[in-house]
Amino acid sequence: MQLRLNSMVMDQNQSAKSRTLKRLQVGGLPLIHAITKRMRLKEILYKYIPAHGNEDIPAVETLARVWDL
Fold it and tell me: Where are the domains of the chain?
């Protein structure tokens, strides 16, 4: 999923005929990353995914690295 943002860039010295249209693309991952931070998903996962005694790195941290939370 990609969002497209269209913006009109016009300097004060430019006439209406010489407008420039720039297309910018924003990927979905920054949006997902921002939403998971606002939800505090990592804290929720720590609450519901228990730690095991034999692991060096908690499962939640592994998930956080995979999903880049």
Answer: 2-67
